[in-house]
């Protein structure tokens, strides 16, 4: 018994804590990482939280984040080199955003991303975006209103806008890697850009006016072919893309009324099904869209107390969705020849045998792929009122 | 003679479940997915089915002599020298696998959780409780297994429930794309890791079970339950991560736990889920180690097997550090040499035993009656 207690005491001395502990005040908690490439060197920018400035008591004089930068031949090298200018080691376990500069995106993102999928400290739940016509460094150098920490603002903005507007797409790192590796789907990332005056974004003064001088906002989707950026979708195409891959949660759509003016549909439920098929060796794809929505706003003379007008609006919306999707597919087929919609995957799922022979020239097949679209819209409610304010009163 | 302990059938069931899940839960989904892609779960079902047949075969053989361990059986069947050399090979295998599992637990801990801790430190600590467990004896191991199986299934159910919202059924399609050849190849690994290696359990079954006849049923049920756990984990890996990511990850089920995110509130629980693998890994390890220590003691007719725990424990630690030069080599070994080694001891040797038994049946009956 005595011996047991003795051993226990000895062990408690040896086994306290961890082998190499890293206390919170030794870590540079990185919330956003930017990758740029210039002259064969990577420039890595890490947006690191300044703990004193985000604490509830005290602080609030300087910037809540700081940017640590380093150059290196590889991403890993550059991240380690950051210790040359940062007193703390970069800790990416809480990373929210990975911003890729346009230059990197154009040259290929496969190589720089390898470290991020291999290293154990990185998790898999952060978003990846592309700086549109900009460098990642510049994007990470901007102060933001509402959210103290720019990386959090970027993360939350993307999340909220993906859920409520549906022209952006929050792609996490594993989803991106799956797309990059897949033979039947090309990758897509959301673009991010700086708006407003281009100077002075890094200082806190830019937040002292109500309308901040400079802000960061999301833009449309970037199309990748293999791992290289080949172009940008328009807003309508971005929304159609999200519709096709069934990523729309809620959105608002403006449609034209039967006679003149506009009406808005609030989409509550958007479901699309992609079905591949091979007929006589020729691949084809069916898209089946089911939308449930409410009438959001009426800005035209239409009597929506009549069932026929609801039906008419449903018909119009069906037609417009079909057109948007159709136009977007045609434009992607013609402009980029990159199967971002995952039609190849759909055919692989339905006809794995035929896919074997199709996959080698898939880009060629994709450009000529016939797509059938079927849209079904159900409008349920009209909001808190029935007819529009401008609708003449019934006698 | 060596101390005579008995465990009951339920305790044996628990040990079989933990032994069979063992390492499979960590590494099998990845191995299955790299060959069978999205049909990995079919391979898992297939493997579990064949595995059950193998276990049934084991129970039949071991009940030839309900009071003897595998090592003693070898000696009775093949005679002193040949039997002892077969047993020695068997002990080499279990000892090697103890070291390999120790390596696995060390790699798992140092890859994902404590990347800068030297692997020797984690392995020495783990080997410490390994030696402790075996010194305390089979009864203690079985009783602690009874407690930990509750923790294990609680965590497992939590993992399954929490990951369900992330399921994407498209990841399963197209079903049945796999051809028979790659299906067989990938399920072979599962069969070997979870069922053929269960030959080590013949050191416990039936000699140390109080009711060997009913325990025979529990051996099969335990293997089946563990098989279902593995099928579920494989299915979830495919459904959530997709075939490609599952195959690419070193420990896909850990990647699965990383994915848990319930309303931005319950997330980052993978370290907790790591407990799951450590529990199953430990019990598999301790049973291998018990088989090697006890087997060696019986080969040399030692009075107390405990004398061997420290030296063998040290050998295991050192072996675990040098067994593989690197992780890639480990994967190579597991899918080639390891398979053949296991199949030799766990399949060919028992087959030989059946043949010899059939030939010497009458003669052996006299011997056992005389003794």
UniProtKB/TrEMBL annotation, chain A:
Residues 20-191 form the Spore germination protein N-terminal domain. InterPro entries: GerAC_N (IPR057336), Spore_GerAC-like (IPR008844), Spore_GerAC-like_C (IPR046953), Spore_GerAC_C_sf (IPR038501). Pfam families: Spore_GerAC, Spore_GerAC_N. GO terms for cellular component: membrane. It is a lipid-anchor. It is found in: Membrane. Keywords: Germination, Lipoprotein, Membrane, Palmitate, Signal. It comes from the Bacteria. Residues 220-383 form the Spore germination GerAC-like C-terminal domain. GO terms for biological process: spore germination. Belongs to the GerABKC lipoprotein family. This is Ger(X)C family spore germination protein. It comes from Psychrobacillus lasiicapitis.
From TrEMBL, chain B:
Coiled coil: none annotated. Keywords: Germination, Membrane, Transmembrane, Transmembrane helix, Transport. It is found in: Membrane. Pfam families: Spore_permease. GO terms for biological process: spore germination. Its main location: membrane. Signal peptide: none annotated. The keyword Metal-binding does not apply. It is a multi-pass membrane protein. The keyword Zinc does not apply. The chain crosses the membrane at residues 12-34, 40-65, 86-106, 118-138, 147-167, 187-208, 220-243, 276-296, 308-327, 339-359. One of its GO terms (cellular component) is membrane. Belongs to the amino acid-polyamine-organocation (APC) superfamily. Spore germination protein (SGP) (TC 2.A.3.9) family. This is Spore gernimation protein. The lineage of its organism: Bacteria, Bacillati, Bacillota, Bacilli, Bacillales.
